[in-house]
Amino acid sequence: MTPLEFRHAVRNGQFRLPTAGQCGAYAQANLVILPQAHADAFLLFCQRNPKACPLLAVGEPGQWNVAALGADMDLRADVPGYNIYRDGQLASQPHALHDVWRDDLVAFAIGCSFSFEQMLMDAGIALRHVEQRRNVAMYRTHIDNQKAGPFGGKLVVSMRPMKARDAIRAIQITSRYPAIHGAPVHLGDPALIGIADIAQPDYGDAVAIAADELPVFWACGVTPQEAIREARLPLVITHQPGYMLVTDIPNASLAAF
Amino acid sequence: MTPLEFRHAVRNGQFRLPTAGQCGAYAQANLVILPQAHADAFLLFCQRNPKACPLLAVGEPGQWNVAALGADMDLRADVPGYNIYRDGQLASQPHALHDVWRDDLVAFAIGCSFSFEQMLMDAGIALRHVEQRRNVAMYRTHIDNQKAGPFGGKLVVSMRPMKARDAIRAIQITSRYPAIHGAPVHLGDPALIGIADIAQPDYGDAVAIAADELPVFWACGVTPQEAIREARLPLVITHQPGYMLVTDIPNASLAAF
């Protein structure tokens, strides 16, 4: 299936599952949709926190067909599941946004680790959570995000256990892709970034770390969702974690070198 | 001082110290000089162990003015100290090779970590052994080199303690320089590569590793000296560890990308 065919399947209600592994050669995106009144501050938040919030595209106010993300795009219906937050609280989880769409809504598409996971697996690096068909383990760190307007909060990281040799190779591979979180932000001792118990992720599923492995931590696209909840805005719409927007952007085209 | 001026100072007996920090923008080299009868096997050993033995240049038999390494080069006198091995035993440590030079001797110049240390420091990464004016700590691992002819032995690594963030940056920086050992071969638990006691290096000086640091291990140019000693050839000449050949090759020109 092409990304366009996949989006049509989503739009028609034929696909309502997590998108991991779908159209693996193409970038998937985290989605944040905000009223124009808060869009400039959120854009600045992304600029100041580029490892957690690398922007693939930003729409114009009211625009749901953002061509930079793909042909015949409809951001109101092309994601298998949305979270609607009102005053910082999760209010509903619809499959489409036609009822709530407004002419002042601005869409932000943020790079997603599904893209670099594909490249790691292509390089022969096994990913335990993929093998075990679990969601990746994610943790809130003690690292403050750089603030912008109402947006702040702590950096959230995803963790993948690896042997040192694979960790070194993974750093090389992901360094080429600043648009999909880039190089890891930490590896080794979790306590050094404020993770008290590696067996208790704040999001996703725990995986075991073998004696000959290091935990390797990447900045995570859940970070902006934390910042958004803390900002307690009247209305914010996001994708549901794991239910991403599949774009027409080839992952390979995002290589910085 | 230019590299040529520095080499002239060495040649004239005005400089007989370790070369760390001299002509920092230019590549320094490990030197191995062998009779032609063993040169092909040693070339193959370098090809099969490129992380420990990245070749900057190989001379013709008898050639001591290898232009690829610098102008007015004299490999018989431009290194501040030589080791002469006979039958695998250190036989003498002269300051020049005029007495022992032969028309069948072939010189190999191998990249040196002094080059990437300069780049790490330029990037703001502090190196403890440099701060403490010690030699870098080096360890024999349990990792077998790929054999070629009489050459084999174990991989020797150098170790630098770093915070995780600096280790990630150091992997990015050194990955650009395959000609000077490239990316690390290991980081974290020393036991996983056969190092029983990190406080007891096999060469060089121990440095402390802080609680918030990881030991980061690079393949080391001492590896071929181990292989050469084990091969017990009638005659091999090397530089003395730390007393390197200063070349005219700008470090920056060695970047692979």
From TrEMBL, chains A, B:
Name the UniProt record assigns to this protein: Putative hydro-lyase H3H36_20715
Family, per entry: Belongs to the D-glutamate cyclase family.
NCBIfam families: PRK05463.1 (NF003969)
InterPro entries, per the entry: D-Glu_cyclase, Putative_hydro-lyase, UPF0317
Listed transmembrane segments: none
The EC number(s) this enzyme carries: 4.2.1.-
Keyword terms, alphabetized: Lyase
Enzyme kind, highest EC tier: lyase
GO molecular function, one term: lyase activity
Pfam families: D-Glu_cyclase
